Every structure is written in structure tokens, then in C-alpha cells.
TrEMBL record:
Family stated for the protein in its record: Belongs to the glycosyl hydrolase 1 family.
Domain of life, per lineage: Bacteria
A Gene Ontology BP annotation from the UniProt entry: carbohydrate catabolic process
Entry keyword annotation includes Hydrolase: yes
Molecular functions (GO terms): beta-glucosidase activity
Enzyme class: hydrolase
Protein name: Beta-glucosidase
Catalytic activity, EC: 3.2.1.21
Lineage start: Bacteria, Bacillati, Bacillota, Bacilli, Bacillales
GO cellular component: a single term: cytosol
Keywords from the named record: Glycosidase, Hydrolase
Length: 419
């Protein structure tokens, strides 16, 4: 039986500036890559050169049938020094937005996707009292120049990821995506080198991924509030939200209390942050199962992704249901994807994930769109170029793009609005 998505349901894909543009030399991540003893498997370098090839890339997305493109604007490019805004960089992002419209893609913009200007670290980074106001001024500069072209905006990508990293990745022995020490959630020696490259000391070097204590979370909430206020003042019609990374938190008998505590940390503590938002960006990749002693490992025969977590596309529908019971905002799936070299498994991941979205829509839950992570095989933070999340493969020796069947599959759904 064929299911038809609502006509206004948006289907497309997503990227992050640092992971695709290349040569974001003013970013704190660049310093981390170059730091002595850095845990990054590769240096981002030219990445996939999307900064130069964005027009061809957007044309390719459109030719595949995709109808939306979520990308981020790199703060470190727009504001290379405190209070100095680059007209040429703002013009570049205007061209990216115009290309989206030219090729029929709805743009969804993230103003911050993990990376920050190196200079921000000299002011205490995301532990600095002035950072919320600084971020809001950056948002103001962007919206004064580009706001007429931005219908949907995320102030931040995955505001809860620092807490998830601390709670989750340390338990499964995986080094978090920015190389934060997994066992102790501390600042390893190499971060002193990264801090020095940013012109500061390690005690002031607080990257976005270290926002995991009450004081820093409060600053992040204030940054979002000020940014939303600024955007709405300049562009009242722009839809404003943020995104959270949410695994489907499950429990086995005896683990209900542990699971409830995890869900409170991952999601519920951030609910006050959403007051006044227009939509909620939901991002899901897998599930987490808890017993009375904590995290329960996947079954021995469970399929794992390249990221070493469980292949479980059904998690998406379950998380949508949980979120919809707690908040009244429309939901956008702003990321959902799988790291694998087997593209047939990616097609199946999309199919089963969208089946979950379909069921939620039939239950009356207000889901507005689905943006797959990610458009291209790209730079996956400290894992370098080894993780294959993309709908489109990239030969980095030539920067040649090769669409996978998963891209065509999702494009057909986007075009027909049916599954």
C-alpha cells in the first residue's frame, strides 16, 4: 500500500560547514586538528571543497529529486575577529542560498554546527559570560544580510550532545567526535596545544562540546534565547528552532528508573529552552537500552554501524512519539542517517525510518519534514574520512561526486511524496 506524505512535507539532506567546506582555518576545530598529539585521524584540509563547488553540489541534489538542503554558516568565516564581519563571506552564503532557490531546494540554515571562532576561546569560549551576547550579534549580522532568504533556521545543532557524549560514549569506549577524553571527560594534554594555537590557555578553552555542566548549559540557553529574539526582531516570519540528538532510550525490566534519568538528562532538562520556538529539530541514529546496572550492550548478533552503535532505524518513530508527548511544537527530522559502506543497508535504513515517520503522521503527530544525514561522504570529526554517512560518494583525489542508490531512492520519495 502506498503512503502519501503531506504536500508541505519537506524531504532533503543535510551537511555541516566544517565537514564539507574545507580550510576553515579560523575555527577552533582547525586548532584541534593541528594540535600536538591531536587524536584526529585525518586533517580536514580541503574537505570535499564544498565551499568552491556548492553550486554544482546543489544542482546535483536537485537532479536527484531532493527538495531541501540543510547547511550551516561558519561563524568563524563570517566573524573572523571580534566584531568584524566579512562582507565577502556573507556574500558567499547569500550565493549558496540563492543557488538553493534557483534549483528548487528549500534552505534550512544552522547558525552553529559545533565549530566556533578561535578568538572566542580567548574570552572563555562557551564558558564565557559574554558569549551569549556575542553569538546574538553574529546572528544579527547574518540576518541583516541574509534573513530575507532564510525560511527555517536552527540557532544550534544538537544542544544536548555534550551531555550525551559524557553519559553515553564513555560507556561504550568510543572516543567522542571531537576527541574529548572518553573515560574521564577531561581535557587531555593535546588540548593545551589547541588552546595555545587559539591564543589562550586550557582553562579558558571551552569548546561547544564541553557544555555539560549546569553553568554552561544556562549560558547556552541564554545564547539561544537572545539569538531567537534577534532573529524574530529582524525577520518575524522566519521559523526558528534548535536541534537535539536523541537516541531512543529503552529499558529492560529493572532499568526503568535508569532510563528515565537518562531521558531527563538528554531531553527533559532542555525543554524550557524551547519556549518561544517555532519548531523542534529532532535527530536520531540509534537506541540505547538500560538495565538496573546501566547501559545494556547490543546483542551479540546485532548489526552495528561503522560508528559501532546498533543499526536500529525503528528508533526514529519511537523518539518522535516520546517527544510529541512532551512538547507541542511541530517536529522536523533534521538528521537521520547511518555510517556504512553497504549502501543497500542505507536504503533500508531510510525506508524503515520513514515508515516510522509515516506511522507517526497517521497517529496525528505534526511532523513537517525529513532531512537525511548526510548529503556527502565527508569529514567526520576525529574519525576523519573513514565514516561513510553520505548519499553521495566523493573521490577526494579528484573531488568527483558519485550519487549512490540511496540518494536516488530518497530523491524519488522526495519527488513523489510517497513511500
Amino acid at each position: 500500500m502506498t503512503f502519501a506524505f503531506p504536500q508541505n512535507f519537506i524531504i532533503g539532506s543535510a551537511t555541516a560547514a566544517y565537514q564539507v567546506e574545507g580550510n576553515n582555518t579560523n575555527s577552533d576545530f582547525w586548532a584541534e586538528e593541528q594540535a600536538e598529539g591531536s587524536p584526529y585521524a585525518d586533517k580536514s584540509g580541503d574537505a570535499i571543497d564544498h565551499y568552491r563547488l556548492y553550486r554544482e553540489d546543489i544542482a546535483l541534489m536537485a537532479s536527484l529529486g531532493l527538495k531541501a538542503y540543510r547547511f550551516s554558516i561558519e561563524w568563524a568565516r563570517v566573524e573572523p575577529a571580534p566584531g568584524q564581519y566579512s562582507k565577502s563571506e556573507l556574500a558567499h552564503y547569500r550565493d549558496v542560498l540563492l543557488a538553493c532557490y534557483e534549483y528548487g531546494l528549500t534552505p534550512v540554515v544552522a547558525l552553529h554546527h559545533f565549530s566556533s571562532p578561535q578568538w572566542l576561546m580567548r574570552f572563555g569560549g562557551w564558558g564565557g559570560e559574554e558569549t551569549p551576547a556575542r553569538f546574538a550579534k553574529y546572528c544579527e549580522a547574518v540576518f541583516q544580510e541574509l534573513g530575507d532568504l532564510i525560511p527555517y533556521v536552527l540557532t544550534f545543532n544538537e544542544v544536548n550532545l555534550p551531555v550525551m557524549l559524557r553519559e553515553t560514549f564513555s560507556n561504550i569506549g568510543l572516543i567522542p567526535p571531537v576527541g574529548i577524553d572518553a573515560a574521564a571527560w577531561s581535557a587531555p594534554k593535546w588540548r593545551e596545544s589547541a588552546a595555545a594555537l587559539c591564543g589562550t590557555t586550557v582553562d579558558r578553552y571551552v569548546t561547544f562540546h564541553m557544555i555539560s555542566d549546569e553553568q554552561k548549559i544556562a549560558l547556552l540557553m541564554e545564547a539561544h534565547r537572545l539569538a531567537r529574539q534577534t532573529i524574530k526582531r529582524l525577520r518575524p516570519d522566519t521559523q526558528v528552532g534548535l536541534s537535539m540528538a536523541l537516541s531512543d532510550v529503552q529499558s529492560v525490566p529493572g532499568g526503568e528508573e535508569v532510563a528515565a534519568h537518562k531521558w531527563q538528562m538528554y531531553f527533559e532538562q532542555y525543554i524550557p529552552m524551547l519556549e518561544g520556538d517555532d519548531f523542534f529539530g529532532l535527530q536520531n541514529y540509534t537506541r540505547e537500552v538500560y538495565g538496573p546496572e546501566g547501559r545494556v550492550a547490543p546483542a551479540a548478533d546485532a548489526e552495528l554501524t561503522q560508528m559501532r552503535y546498533e543499526y536500529y532505524p525503528e528508533a526514529l518513530g519511537e523518539v518522535i512519539r516520546k517527544v510529541s508527548k512532551a512538547i507541542q511544537l511541530p517536529i522536523f527530522i533534521t538528521e537521520h542517517g547511518v555510517a556504512t559502506d553497504d549502501d543497500e543497508r542505507r536504503v533500508e535504513f531510510i525506508r524503515r525510518g520513514l515508515a516510522g515517520v509515516q506511522a507517526c503522521l497517521e497517529e496525528g503527530i505534526d511532523v513537517r519534514g525529513y532531512l537525511h544525514w548526510t548529503t556527502f561522504d565527508n569529514f567526520e570529526w576525529n574519525a576523519g574520512y573513514s565514516m561513510r554517512f553520505g548519499l553521495i560518494a566523493v573521490d577526494r583525489s579528484t573531488q568527483e561526486r558519485q550519487a549512490k542508490e540511496s540518494a536516488r531512492y530518497l530523491g524519488r520519495i522526495a519527488e513523489s511524496k510517497t513511500i
